[in-house]
């Protein structure tokens, strides 16, 4: 551990601070919406905000504000990316026990419904990943439960009406809450507060923090960048140092996102990065798949199907790691052109 650090925890992206800087209005909006006398009429919500705007922390903190007369549950659409996995996790949260194997979805739904005896608030984070599979069926079931509020969270869709069947959206009918990107000043205030709690006094120069927060207002990237600078610094963190570790910090952020997925996701991302170094972007799905397959064979690993890799490309797109443009018509029908999201025109680095 760097000798500049008193305690590392406030610099972790998973750390849940006691107070949220710059999100007071959003907290008030949620509190006001759920301050209803009739607990059988809890509102549904869809919360949208780009990555690094504090959605997950806001909702996790919000769930802790309910009294014991409520049940609260948090589900991640990344880790529970099918209806079966989400229901399985929901049952575990409601009962404290895991389901055995071999259950039909209708059976788990019945078991979950039996456990919803108190007013219940269910947060479905990263809902976009669930909606790639059978998340629509899951949301229809959840929104039909009595005394239950469903809060979906997305980094990609301000509204998910177009992603749902009409019957599901009619049952859902959410209120909307948008978390806009932080301003550089707000981002600086957040990182400065974390730094005060984590670092020795006078370890961080003001100009260094200003450079980080004028370059990115994604708090997850900012924290990763600050932590990389802290771990590299010998005496003090200055602007020259944060510029020096900028690329490495971004790639650590990428690895952090991809570590929630499979080795094939990481190999696919590295394939795109390597191809962009070797040839002009954008790249077609076919080109990426051929190169990915070759890298798998070189590593002695069986490549996944082209259809599965197409799904994984969509995952990278939802993570804001690649940009894709779609073209229709022509001899190949629908084609997708891909390139990495530009990080100040920096080069790429292996993330496996």
TrEMBL record:
Residues 269-341 form the Cdc6 C-terminal domain. InterPro entries: AAA+_ATPase, AAA_16, Cdc6_C, ORC1/CDC6, P-loop_NTPase, WH-like_DNA-bd_sf, WH_DNA-bd_sf. Keywords: ATP-binding, DNA replication, Nucleotide-binding. GO terms for biological process: DNA replication. Residues 41-178 form the AAA+ ATPase domain. Signal peptide: none annotated. SMART domains: AAA, Cdc6_C. Belongs to the CDC6/cdc18 family. This is Cdc6/Cdc18 family protein. GO terms for molecular function: ATP binding. It comes from Haloarchaeobius amylolyticus.
